[in-house]
Amino acid sequence: MPACAETRQRTEGSADVFPVLSSSGAESLSSDEKEVAAGGTEGEGSAEEHPAGEDSSENSSSSSLEEESDAEELDGRRSDEEQEEKESLAHCNESGVKCLPPCEHCRNENDQKEEVTPRMLSGGQYVVQLDAEGTYQCSLTGLIFEVTGAVKITYSLLSWSKYANLVEKPWIVGGPLFDVRCDSTPALTSIQFPHSLCLGDHGAGMAFKVLHVKGEGAAIEPSADYSASHVKWLVSSLSPVGPLIQSQEPVQYHGAVILYKVVDEHPSLSFRVYVATNNDSFIKDISRAVKHSNKKFIKIDKPPVCQKLLQKGKRYRLICEPEAEITPEEIEFVDGSLLKLKSYIEVYLEKPDDFTLSLVELESDATVWKARLRESDWIHYDQNKNEQKRSTVSNVKKRKPALSILEEGELCSKKQKTGNAADGNETKILTDQQLMVIAKLFGRQWREIAIECLQMEMKDIEQIQATEDEVNMQKFLVLSKWRDREQGDGTAEALYRSLREKASHEILQALQGFSARC
Asked: Fewer beta carbons within 10 Å, N or C terminal of the chain?
């Protein structure tokens, strides 16, 4: 039974449902499955970045770093994939559910699906254990699984750019690409893939299929049906699969604007602004491109979702108030999912003042996206970074801020003390009470942070979870294990250094307070 609400049933033989857009399109639509030969090398397809005004040709040669990145993505064993998954889902709320606002052009879906939250494994993989027949939706990726019995499903997000040569016109990317595995394939009857399109009243003019990667080639397979948010595929076999579309009319996308700031010693400000479809594969590519840049960046946390649809071929302008150097000032929007080079807009301000960025559609002069950037959005990171640098090159003991006798007594009486023979400074080991404070501040992603930032093993976390049911105690025991491993360096400052790029601002503030007061 179809799991999409208010879906439109599609059959391959209906000319009015699957319109012939070109000779190649007619050929694709006349058969249930089209085999596509793979013409690219295994090393191509990793995400890079370049200013939007530069050439983004697929013929640019891949660097050794790109090849390594692609190979690592293929086997799913990158130790830092989990954070990329997390960043790729930055347009989700704290519960992990997609936070796209209701689109006035899209239909609301009222069908009932049981929501499941997967465990995250090393290598950026998700895993869910489904115990009975039913339809289940992943709260982090939006994937919907229809199963006939108990199954264990493992899946990961992939980059479309690696398989760009397999996507032939008139087909274009419709949503993220996933590699899905299952311990009982026959029990997994269908998968619904989220798409980034706004169908509005144009759904009848669109054809939906899926690209099913098979070894060195791929097949374009029919979809079962589609809804305002998903494309449904009946499972034939399991390997990388993602939605494709072709359309007689201009395609409109739900979009996202993603900001990164250059971290350096200059007082001026430099940002990268990425305009993307709200497609997890695309956003993951951007995260990887920034990570592999020779510059250091931090992600600026601003609402990324565009308030107006993006349309291929339309031109957009980025405006800054007060005025800044913007390169290029205008862009023509294209879905860059298949491009190895991810375009961005560079914003440069001589003075580090607060400012407002707006993305405007030139044709209508309508504001597509807008955000106010304040010094507090990035200054705490830079200050902490500089403070840490100073502390590593100076042996002078810092003067502690003045505290009341009561505060001094309450804080310092609880702390274990140890001497640091290297520099003569007295350091304070984090107490159980302090670790519990930090544990309670961790959110849903605490396991990923523990693995990536604290070098914890998944087996250790699972062992703790098996012996302790209360979540805050699980977090506390993981932090306690880290403290015991660090021995004399289990301090607030050391934990801050480990967590500073991934943890929330509240956690970092608490650790700063622990460091400053004793």
From this structure: N
| H helix intervals, 51-181 | 64-75, 81-88
* 485 membership: H or E segment, kind and range: helix 471-486
CA separation for the pair 376, 208 (Å, rounded):
45
**What CA–CA distance (Å, rounded) separates 518 from 516?**
6
Among 222-231, 287-296, 390-399, 423-432, name the one with the lowest average pLDDT.
390-399
Instruction: Measure the CA–CA gap between 140 and 448, rounded to whole angstroms.
Output: 13
95-121 pLDDT per residue, tens: 333 444 456 666 555 566 788 999 888
**Spatial contact of 302 and 355, defined as CB atoms under 8 Å apart:** no
Residue type, 428: K
Q: Cα–Cα distance between 11 and 442 in angstroms, integer?
A: 48
Beta-bridge partner residues of 316: 331, 361
Map residue 130 onto helix, strand or coil.
strand
**Nearest alpha-carbon partner for 360 in 275, 278, 476:** 275
pLDDT for residue 401? 43
Name the helix (H) or strand (E) containing 462.
helix 458-467
- Pick left, alpha or beta for residue 382 (phi over 0 → left; psi -120 to 50 → alpha; otherwise beta): alpha
Q: Could you tell me the CA-to-CA distances from 156 to 106, 337, 416 in Å, in that order?
A: 27, 17, 43
Yes or no: say if 28 and 10 are a contact pair by the CB < 8 Å rule.
no
Q: How far is CA 134 from CA 20, 60, 192, in A?
A: 36, 46, 13
Q: Do 25 and 246 touch, CB atoms closer than 8 A?
A: yes
